[in-house]
Amino acid sequence: MSQPLQAEKGVGAEFMVMETSSNEVAQEHFHTGLALLHNFEYGRAAAAFRLAQEADPDFVMAYWGEAMTYNHPLWEFRDVERARDALAKLALTPEARSAKVRNSRERLWLDAVETLYSDGPKEERDHAYLAKMRAMLEADPDDIDARAFTGLAVLGTSHGGRQIPLYMEAAGILEEGFMAHEMHPGILHYMIHSYDDPVHAPLGERPAARYAKVAPNAGHAQHMVSHIFHALGDWERSEAANINADAVVDRQLAERGRDPTFCGHYNEWLAYALIQQGKDASEMVEGCRAEAVAEVAAGRDYGKIGGYRSDSSSFGTIALHAGVTSGVWAEPVGWPEDRFLKAQFNLAYASLLQSRDDPVAAATALDRMKAIHGKILRALPDEMPDETAIPSWNERIIAQGEAIVTLAGGNSEVGLALLEAAAEAEAAMPVVFGPPAIEKPSYEMLGEELLALGRSSKAAGAFQKALAFSPGRYLSLKGLEAARASTSREIGS
Fold this sequence. Notes:
Elements: H1 24-38, H2 42-55, H3 60-68, E1 71-72, E2 77-78, H4 80-88, H5 94-98, H6 104-116, H7 122-139, H8 144-156, H9 164-180, H10 185-195, H11 205-214, H12 219-232, H13 235-255, H14 265-276, H15 282-297, H16 311-326, H17 341-354, H18 359-383, H19 389-408, H20 412-428, H21 442-452, H22 456-469, H23 474-492
Antiparallel strand pairs: 1-2
Helix pairs in contact: 1-2, 1-3, 2-3, 3-4, 3-6, 6-7, 7-8, 8-9, 8-10, 9-10, 10-11, 10-12, 11-12, 12-13, 13-14, 14-16, 15-16, 16-17, 17-18, 17-19, 18-19, 19-20, 20-21, 21-22, 21-23, 22-23
């Protein structure tokens, strides 16, 4: 059995206070894994928990921890088979595993994770797991990790998007823990998630001020604080946070002998923050495109959809960020017809946005979007069975596309009615964190169309509605300024 000289540093392990029944070496690795788990650094957390298993093969919580790394509640993802395999390393059956617990608290943690990965639909298991966590917290309200994971479990039952009452319930659970453990990474992280919408973001500045300091070597922690800055429209701080997050990732890539990356979730947010300040993101667009081209050439298999983490999907997102604001559109990648469908949908949408004045080209782009959307729907049950956001928002984008085609054909009044209906439907969707789920929000587009028709007062109202969902958005601010200036001139004349 080999052990590294020391466990990972800079991830918040020093703020872990969970008492364990293990030896000192296993406990050190366990606390590192626990901190990484709270930071959503799932792969690194699993590795730390496996080191704890090596140091103490009968340590129940080390297997609990590894199993927990396969549940990503806020990303609507759960790998049941890998979690069950992790638990099976301790013992093959729940009864045999239960016989290995060393105290009553371990029994409760093990019972909760067994419930999470039991049989039945995901939503039912989420609620059953939450009930176990509530009981655990009620039994010991001072257990800060039980409190943190209960708050996260509440968030995890908000299926299909943000349900504000649930998010505020989670915040209340977490706030009580924040008073006594103001540097606990799980408490801070889940508070930020509870508050990362434009209405509640001011409440998230307190955990955001601490979280990046708690885990300087966790890229997700560095990125997470930008959730609050983004919701506040504070692009300078969002830029800085994602530069820090990307630096952590690049450092870890260098340690494995790999080059820095222009793609990835943190770079997507960084590109958006740059663009909202009027800064040039062309280097990021071209850099990520090159990585997407290399990904295709290497034949990497991400299934048909391409997921959220492929370089191609990232390129599609970054290219849209830049193109919508700058009007400079990136060259597409030669994707196989039945692969990287998420990226293909985004680039078809880019073609649609470029064709707002060309009815034939706009209709062609819309037809392509519909065809790709159909392929995504057929692939989802096998590849992303718990995913709900992609199909819901694709349908909203297609509805906007119908308005664009109608407007491009010269039927302004019908097109405006369709666009307003699309905007109202978007507003009725659950609030999303981060960049808009539709790259060109329909209220912003409606404002632009109304302004072009000389209806400046109504245009100003549309831009204000767009800014309510995306504070500080560059094009909406510019549009509102232009609409107000036009209204003033009309009044003055």
